[in-house]
Write a structure and sequence with these properties.
Layout: H1 2-8, H2 15-54, H3 57-71, H4 73-83, H5 98-126, H6 134-162, H7 165-192, H8 198-225, H9 231-242, E1 247-258, E2 261-270, H10 276-293, E3 297-306
Parallel strand pairs: 2-3
Antiparallel strand pairs: 1-2
Helix pairs in contact: 1-10, 2-3, 2-4, 2-6, 3-5, 3-6, 3-7, 3-8, 4-5, 5-8, 6-7, 7-8, 9-10
Length: about 325
C-alpha cells in the first residue's frame, strides 16, 4: 500500500535543496525591493520639494505616482517574507499566495494615485496658474525618469530570474512612471512659453498613463488569482511527458503559480504490464524531466494510469464524483 501511494504523490529532488532555492529567491526579491524603495523614495522626496515651490500639478502627479510606486514595495516585501515560512498543517501549500494579495494592494495603490493626480489636474484646469521655476520642474522630471528607469531594469531583471510576476509587473510599472516623468518636461516647457494650461493638461495625460498601468496590473493580478498560466507551458509539459521512456501518452496537465514558483498535477498512461516498482520509476523520471524542463517548477504530483486492459474503467468508483 505504501508503494502504491508513492505512484500517486510527488517525487521531488532533495527537499532541503528546494527550500534553500525558494529562500534565496525570496531573499533576492526582498533585496531588490529594498534598494528600489530607497531610490524611489529619494526621487519622490526631491520632486516633492520642487512641487512645493513651483506649484506644478504635472510634477505633483508624477510625484504621487512615484510615491505610490515606492509604497508598492511594502506589501510585496511582506509577501516575500511570508513566502519564506514553512508550510503548516493548515497552510499545506505554504504562504506563497501572499504575493497575489500584495498584487491586489498594489492595484489599489495605483488607483488612488491616479485619482489624486487627476483631481489635482482638473482643479488646475478650472483655475489656471503660472508655475514657478520651470527649469527646476524640468530637472525634477529628468530625475524622475532616471530613478524609475534604473528601478525598472533592476526589478524586471530580478523578477524574471526568480520567477516573480508581481516583481516584473512592478518593474514595468516603474518604467511607465519614467515615461510619465519625461512628460513633465512638456508641461514645464509650455509654462516657460507662457502657456499655463500646458501643466494641467500634461497632468491629465499622466493620469491617463497611470490608468493604463492600472489596467495592465489588474489584468495580471486577475490571471494569478484565477490560476492562469501561459498555455505554452502546458504544451511544453505535455511534450516533456510524452518523451519519458515508458509513457504511452500524457493525460491531463494542470499548472498553477504559488508565489513565484510553479506546481504541477499531471497524468501519465503506462503499460499495464509494468510492475509497481517500474511504474514508480517512470513517474519519478516524469517529474524529474518536468522540473528540469519547466522554468521555476518546484514540484509535480504525477498520477499513473494503466493503459488497459481493453474496456476496463479504472476510475469507475470516482465517475459520480467528477
Amino acid at each position: 500500500m505504501t508503494r502504491l501511494r508513492h505512484v500517486m504523490v510527488p517525487h521531488t529532488h532533495d527537499s532541503a535543496a528546494k527550500t534553500d532555492a525558494a529562500l534565496e529567491s525570496s531573499a533576492r526579491g526582498m533585496r531588490a525591493l529594498a534598494v528600489s524603495f530607497a531610490l524611489l523614495a529619494v526621487t519622490a522626496a526631491v520632486q516633492a520639494v520642487i512641487v512645493a515651490f513651483s506649484g506644478s500639478v504635472a510634477l505633483l502627479g508624477d510625484t504621487l505616482h512615484n510615491v505610490a510606486d515606492a509604497l508598492t514595495a511594502l506589501p510585496l516585501g511582506i509577501a516575500f517574507w511570508l513566502g519564506r515560512r514553512a508550510a503548516t498543517r493548515r497552510f499545506t501549500y505554504g504562504y506563497g499566495r501572499a504575493e497575489d494579495l500584495a498584487g491586489v494592494i498594489i492595484v489599489l495603490v495605483i488607483a488612488v494615485s491616479a485619482a489624486l493626480a487627476g483631481y489635482a489636474a482638473i482643479r488646475r484646469l478650472a483655475d489656471p496658474q503660472d508655475i514657478r521655476a520651470a527649469g527646476w520642474v524640468a530637472a525634477a522630471g529628468l530625475v524622475g525618469f532616471a530613478g524609475n528607469e534604473w528601478v525598472a531594469r533592476y526589478r524586471i531583471r530580478v523578477g524574471r530570474e526568480i520567477g516573480s510576476a508581481a516583481l516584473v509587473a512592478d518593474g514595468l510599472h516603474a518604467r511607465t512612471d519614467g515615461y510619465t516623468s519625461l512628460a513633465v518636461l512638456v508641461g514645464a516647457g509650455g509654462a516657460a512659453m507662457g502657456m499655463p494650461l500646458a501643466d494641467p493638461i500634461v497632468g491629465l495625460l499622466i493620469t491617463g498613463a497611470i490608468c493604463f498601468v492600472l489596467r495592465d496590473a489588474a489584468r495580471q493580478i486577475w490571471h494569478r488569482l484565477m490560476d492562469a498560466v501561459d498555455p505554452a507551458l502546458v504544451e511544453e509539459a505535455e511534450r516533456l511527458l510524452a518523451e519519458v521512456p515508458g509513457v504511452r501518452r500524457a493525460g491531463a496537465v494542470r499548472l498553477r503559480w504559488i508565489g513565484h514558483a510553479l506546481r504541477a498535477e499531471v497524468e501519465i498512461v503506462l503499460d499495464p504490464g509494468l510492475s509497481l516498482v517500474e511504474a514508480h520509476a517512470v513517474a519519478v523520471e516524469a517529474e524529474h524531466r518536468l522540473i528540469h524542463g519547466l522554468p521555476r517548477l518546484r514540484a509535480a504530483t504525477v498520477h499513473a494510469d494503466p493503459d488497459g486492459p481493453e474496456g476496463a474503467e479504472h476510475h469507475a468508483v470516482l465517475i459520480a464524483h467528477r
